[in-house]
């Protein structure tokens, strides 16, 4: 978990980068930008708003041979070792970004490199390097009094409500390649920012594994439980799965299977499905791990608990009290109507 509320921008360097394939140049500022009390809160909100509003999917610097060959990892380490070097290193970062700007769709824009202090991540207060890029300009109007009339002047500038691209490199978990958050609002070339410029992989911590395992369970429910059982059992399997994650601090696969699978025939189906699909979710060798509560909460919001019927009726099952669906909802077949039915038991209707 992160907390950016007390984040302070210590220094800021602003440069401009063009598109190399269109023979556009880059521009490097000679000195850092002179921050003042008026613009500081505006820039802080511009830089950090997108990170507060998105899921915390962490990345880490990576390289096929060795982490020391990752250029951005080395540049970030240089800054964290000597924070006074941030402006000179920001020039190297801008040049590196320019070298990756070869695709004709990549837009030119301003590059902001900030040294940030007092960020909280995993209950640790750390520094961070923020790298941001503005690409799209918006039209806006200025007004000027000319004699007896008010004249409109059409101008263009950066919309401070939307960050186009950005990353936060936390001075945390250096040995694994640092923990990194990134945003990309203009995904015209998805590989440009993540792969070419940053060269990152997903950070495989408990948050990552928890999300991946729950996604694996969701697909197992759709691909195996639903065809073998019915929609109710698909929903209830995911219900039991999420509740297992919610009430336990640590995941143990065999305990999980014993608790969530009512049909013993599905036990072997689950293990076979994991052999076939586990690598896709990066859980092929995972049988135990600490559970990340934030990931469970996010997953619960996304999992559907509604049975949609072809008679334009919906049955919504309660994920908080799953035993209700187990006890009070029955599925059957009506010979006379040649239709399936759900029988729902209750004592009285609740007021909405």
What report would you give on this structure?
This is Nucleoid-associated protein. It comes from Flavobacterium gossypii. Pfam families: NA37. The chain is α+β, with helices and mostly antiparallel strands and 352 residues long. It folds into 2 domains: 2-203, no CATH class; 207-344, no CATH class. 36% of the residues lie in helices and 28% in strands. It contains 10 helices and 16 strands. Strands 1, 2, 4, 5, 8 and 9 form a 6-stranded antiparallel β-sheet that branches. A hairpin with a 2-residue loop joins strand 4 and strand 5 (124-134). Helix 5 packs antiparallel against helix 6, helix 5 (206-228) packs across helix 8 (265-277) and helix 5 (206-228) runs parallel beside helix 9 (293-302). The longest helix is centred in the middle third of the chain and has 23 residues, at 206-228. It is elongated and about 85 Å long.
Number of DSSP helical runs = 10
Regions with little confidence, pLDDT below 50 for 5+ residues: none
**Morphology call:** elongated
Euclidean distance between termini CA atoms? 35 Å
Number of domains: 2
Provide the β-strand percentage band. Answer: 25-35%
Number of strands: 16
Radius of gyration: 26 Å
The ordered string of helix (H) and strand (E) elements is EEHEHHEEEEEEHEHHEHHEHEEHEE
Level of helix content? 25-40%
How is the biggest beta sheet arranged?
6 strands, antiparallel
- Average pLDDT across residues? 90
> What structural category characterises the helix and strand content?
alpha+beta
């Amino acid at each position: 978990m992160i907390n950016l509320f007390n984040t302070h921008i210590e220094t800021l360097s602003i440069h401009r980068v063009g598109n190399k394939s269109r023979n556009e140049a880059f521009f490097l500022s000679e000195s850092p930008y002179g921050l003042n009390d008026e613009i500081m809160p505006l820039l802080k909100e511009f830089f950090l708003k997108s990170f507060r509003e998105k899921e915390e999917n962490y990345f880490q610097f990576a390289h096929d041979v060795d982490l020391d060959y990752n250029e951005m990892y080395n540049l970030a380490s240089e800054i964290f070792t000597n924070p006074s070097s941030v402006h000179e290193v920001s020039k190297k970062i801008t040049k590196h970004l320019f070298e990756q700007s070869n695709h004709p769709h990549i837009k030119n824009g301003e590059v902001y490199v900030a040294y940030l202090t007092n960020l909280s991540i995993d209950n640790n207060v750390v520094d961070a390097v923020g790298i941001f890029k503005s690409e799209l300009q918006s039209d806006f109007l200025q007004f000027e009094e000319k004699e007896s009339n008010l004249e409109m002047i059409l101008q263009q500038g950066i919309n401070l409500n939307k960050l186009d691209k950005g990353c936060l490199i936390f001075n945390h978990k250096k040995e694994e390649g640092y923990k990194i958050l990134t945003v990309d609002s203009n995904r015209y070339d998805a590989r440009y920012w993540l792969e070419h410029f940053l060269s990152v992989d997903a950070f495989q911590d408990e948050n990552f594994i928890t999300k991946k395992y729950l996604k694996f369970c969701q697909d197992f429910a759709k691909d195996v439980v639903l065809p073998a059982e019915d929609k109710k059992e698909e929903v209830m399997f995911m219900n039991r799965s999420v509740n297992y994650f919610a009430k336990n601090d640590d995941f143990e696969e065999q305990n999980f299977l014993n608790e969530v699978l009512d049909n013993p025939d599905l036990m072997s189906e689950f293990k076979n499905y994991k052999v076939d699909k586990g690598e896709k979710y990066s859980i092929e060798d995972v049988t135990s791990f600490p559970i990340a509560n934030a990931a469970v909460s996010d997953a619960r919001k996304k999992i559907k608990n509604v049975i949609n019927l072809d008679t334009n009726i919906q049955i919504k099952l309660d994920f908080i009290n799953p035993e209700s669906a187990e006890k009070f909802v029955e599925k059957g077949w009506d010979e006379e109507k040649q239709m399936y039915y759900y029988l729902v038991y209750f004592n009285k209707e609740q007021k909405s």
